[in-house]
Amino acid sequence: MTPRGFEARQVHTQLGVVTLRRRYYTCPAEHGGYAPLDQQLALVGQWSAGMQEWMQYVSAKDSFAGGAECIAMFSGQVAAPSSIREVAEWHGARKEAAQQKEIAQRLQRRQKPPRTPAPGRLYVAVDGAHVPERGEWKECKVGVVFETSARLPLRVRRREYVAAIEPMAQFGERLYTVAQRHGVEHAAELVVLGDGAPAIWELAAMHYPQATQILDFYHASEHLHAVRALAWPADDPHGERWTRAQIVRLKRGWWDAFIAAFAALPPLRGKRDQALRYFLNNRERMQYRAYRARRLFIGSGIVESACKQVVTRRMKITGARWLHPGAQAIIQIRVAYLNGAYCPRAQIRLAA
Fold first, then answer.
1. Can you tell me the distance from the alpha carbon of 250 to that of 9, in angstroms, rounded to the nearest whole number?
2. Which of 94, 193, 256, 317 is the most exposed place for a label (fewest CB within 10 A)?
3. What is the pTM of this model?
């Protein structure tokens, strides 16, 4: 590297535009230049590290145009929506790369899981929601790893979100890496919550064979309401009574009466037997009376909420149509925000 003296550069900071004079080096062989201070200050383009953090934060919460308006209103600094998008996607791609590196190291056994206190009861919940990419909708897998208190009322502790647009097999590796950070290999009790999709139970069997598998009670109830809609008109009280009775039987574990009530229905063009097979195939995951006696969650409301927090409130905003790399990057920014990566700070950072 050949020193070329000092060169000036304008940097947009949280306090306004400043001019830096830093030592600059050139490499004749590569026809490029390099300023060590730029890396020390973690500059990306013309933006200081503090501005980059603001840009990530507003990108996680709102559209890029809304984020630009928020920064201008509360700080007086100007950042174009396109600049906010570029910076947020750059950082999101770095977060994605870091996750992939962690997954690869774990698979190759080069990285030991961090030492954490062994959790008493650890939950792994999985669901999905669709993201509007240009030309088609893609499913974003969403997972939550959390612990609960041992006594009533049950309170969620150490919750961590994870999400990505990828096949379930790859997402299983990503989710297990997060669960490993929470001490999944040493948990006294492990529970997997799902909505009944076969891919979720395959994921559970592969990564958490010792776990108690629970089918979300509210998804099971939705199947009963679907059967009612086929068998009775919407305003028929007999259908309402049948559905309420079936929900009670299911929650209390009265399986003989539950199955008999299905047998009394007409075939419904094969839908009755299809619904019955759903319950019989998942019977071992629907022991709700026993689960409640053990003070386990029987609903996946936490991961349902996570789908809304990650996908609906950010990725499905009005007019959003994503390219795949950008969608994956902003999902990682949103997940980082929900996991507390952008906590408010009292100090204003000038350039670092």
1. 68
2. 256
3. 0.89
